[in-house]
Amino acid sequence: MPSLILLILSAVVTLFLRPHHASPDFIRQPPRPIVNTPHDLPESYSQQVHLSLVGKNYMKVSWVTEESNVPSIVDYGKIAGKYDSSATGETTSYRYFLYTSGEIHHVKIGPLDPATTYYYRCGGSGPEFNFKTPPATFPIEFVVVGDLGQTEWTRSTLDHINASNYDVLLLPGDLSYADLLQPLWDSFGRLVEPYASKRPWMVTEGNHEQEKLPIIYPEGFIAYNARWPMPYEESGSKSNLYYSFDTVGTHIIMLGSYTDFSIGSDQYKWLVSDLAKIDRSITPWVLVLVHAPWYNSNKAHQGEGESMRIAMEELLYNSHVDMIFAGHVHAYERFVSLLISIILLLKTRVYENDIDPCGPTYITIGDGGNREGLAMKYKEPSPSISLYREASFGHGRLRIMNETHARWLWHRNNDSTSVVAEDVWFESLISSHSCSQKIKEKVPQHDEL
Ligand SMILES: [Fe+2]
To answer: Where does the record locate the signal sequence feature (predicted)?
Structure first.
């Protein structure tokens, strides 16, 4: 009798595991033009203001001024127009062919109280901004969106993101699509300022950040590293191209698809060390972001993440990473994680191209709205581990409710409105009895940074 029940369950499950697609009458959106975001304030005023998390209870404020003698100072406080704290930082600038950047300022402020609105001003004059710090405890809501660009679709996506509250934005690469045209980094900074000045934006690099040129700029990432420095030193990394940080019970690892990831490389050794230090009693959730997807059934960029998957998948599996987000493919795709598997009612995830109850859930979310348009062609038939795939612009929201449960919403851009096309609940691996036993056996290692 039990075997009959299993057989029936298996048949039901097979039906559930068939991939979802958008309804046939849904019309795909063509690319939309690049938007120009001019600077129409005095040259000494801050522009391109954005925030990032930098250590516990601190934020980094980054901005650009066209004038070079503006002080790198941020005045801030909890009441609008009344600044009872201030901090000074540093400036940088860079040249790229004939282009010279404005003065790029980075100032670390804090300690800051959790779940608190702060008002601030950059450089001692100019407009006031405000932001809210992440909460001290669950729940926390992440917006996840890759391949943002600066088109009219980007603007729609940003409006939809801004329409409801969130705590931290995670961007798995491809920001401005400047592609050597440096003024496009400035216009991107101005486009995202109304959003990135209100919440921390944590990013990792995509191929469009490289801007390498043989002999002249062989290392690349000149603009990206100058404009979007992330807290890599705080996580023991030697490079802005990969790092990790903690926020509200979540350890987040930002990997670099475009710097050496092979076994024995600096990034690989850093990842081994970073994973060894995770303490699941402090951060029960572990997320990873990377640009080129390791699992992808779209014909675009097929196989580009494969060598990195081969190098690093086992490390992440053995450390029980909950979810891995990627960009690069301009579409949405989710690889498993439904509360069902072929044999038993387990949480199914992915490892080595197959269903595995203790592997991560993989999500491709390269759908921010860039100028290249959507990746429309998929491999057929759909692999059984791909549960939902759709070539539409949009963004995702991961609301981690507590140590054990998180809700994932994928919002599709339907012209000017945002529609929830996916609504899925995830359980953390720490809450899975069979997987958590392995996690508990691992003792976190703390070494000197
Ligand atoms: Fe990309």
So the answer is: 1-22
- pLDDT per position as a tens digit, 104-129: 999 999 999 999 999 999 999 999 99
Short-list 337, 228, 237, 323, CA closest to 277: 237
Percent pLDDT > 90 in the chain is: 76
**Catalytic one of 106, 160, 208, 301:** 301
Q: At what angle do helices 306-318 and 266-276 cross, to 10 degrees?
A: 20
For the chain, the structural domain boundaries read: 7-20+134-441, 47-132
Ligand 1 centroid to Cα of residue 394, in Å, is 16
Of the candidates 147, 90, 140, 146, the residue with the CA atom closest to the CA atom of residue 114: 140
Q: What class, spelled out in words, does domain 7-20+134-441 have in CATH?
A: alpha beta
How far apart are alpha carbons 320 and 314 in whole angstroms? 10
Dist CA 95 CA 45 (whole Å): 21
Residue 278's alpha-carbon distances to 14, 241, 271, in angstroms, are 36, 20, 11
pTM of the model: 0.92
Query: How many A from CA of 182 to the centre of ligand 1?
Result: 18
- Which CATH class for the 47-132 domain? mainly beta
Radius of gyration (C-alpha) of the chain in whole angstroms: 22
Give 291 Cα–ligand 1 centroid separation in angstroms: 7
